[in-house]
Amino acid sequence: MESVNRFILILFSILVVFNVSRLLIGLTLANWHQLRHLNRQRRKLPRSLPTMSVIIPAYNEEKYIQRAVKSVLRQTGVQFEVIVVDDGSTDHTGILLDKMGQRYPQLVVLHQNNQGKSRAINHGLAKATGELVMVLDADSYLGEQALMTMSQHFVDPQVIGMSANVRITRPLNWIEWVQKIEYLLGYRLKGSEESLGLEYIIGGVGSTFRRQAMQKVGGYDTDSVTEDIDFTLKLITAFGNRGWRFGYANDVMAYTPPVQTFIELIRQRLRWKYGRFKALVKYRQLIFSTTGQYTKTLSWWKLPKVYGEELMMLLEPVLILWIIGIAIAYLDPTTIISILVLYTVFALATFIPEDLSPFERLQLLLVAPLTYFILYVINVVDWICLIRCLRKWRAIVRNQDQTARWEHVQR
Description:
Number of strands: 8
Protein name: Phage-related glycosyl transferase, group 2
Domain Glycosyltransferase 2-like: 53-217
Keywords: Glycosyltransferase, Membrane, Transferase, Transmembrane, Transmembrane helix
Order of helices and strands: HEHEHEHEEHEHEHHEHHHHHH
Largest sheet: 8 strands, mixed
Transmembrane segments: 6-32, 311-330, 336-352, 364-384
Pfam family, one: Glycos_transf_2
């Protein structure tokens, strides 16, 4: 038993050191990424920025659709059009959109039979005229100057796709606060992924691409439940990420409502994880690729590491319980305290420089010592989703579920 305890401690220590290194490197590179964007903003920009088409696919979104559209119509500093595709909604979404279409000349409203989110985006893409295309979820909305700021990133001709900085809006209960903190911490590290050539998910809320590149690959595939992950990997496969940049615009703000209950969060994350597994299997040629199109950090580190992280997540409950048992048996809480301190420092380093209201920053600073426990809620959700995905591994490998359907959660 003593040797087993020693082995578990050594393994856990290695994981802790790995996570500490990852967080420190991630924060350092994220800060450098942010400073680089600030320096880019100070440079003299061209007189005309790339024109934009904002595509909003919608299905039964009468609660949020007007807010989403108006957040785009309020944008200034760049020429744009708004294309909303009503995918056969059975509520008042279509009626509300038709009324808005009569009031706003920049708004194009398209209707189609219910065919799924990917086909709705492709329908909008076929009508788009902008040099850039932003995809905005119908339940989300853009911050001020989001379009102009995003278009500035594409002044660099090597940029092919950029994700926005997505934040959770007005959390009311504990599970919504968990998501708010998760998004803040997760997106803080996203800048480091661009710096290292690791970015492979240009998320759906505010994701922006060059229209010609989108059309060249035939738009979004319709055999995925997570169209954004699938499409990013499709573009990377076609163009490579060594000469082209897939990045993260930390200064482009987009907002999305949180999931309201623990059960609904499981539903949402199950779709994300299942879809990511499907996409990774579908584009498995990227892993350990030697073609020279892709960065080694993506092909030989990031993508293989996804599988390694899922394996460690599978074993994590056993490791955690074992470490707690050892700490109690030997009255030595050093390891546990070190982890709590690490995540507290990580949270403080994220919350302090973020652009938040004073009251919001104070709230987050007060809960910073609970960061590890807060994030562990997400770990529990991910673990449950992983188990469910493993039960469906045959469908994932054989790509059996080929419907890019809508998956609405309670908000």
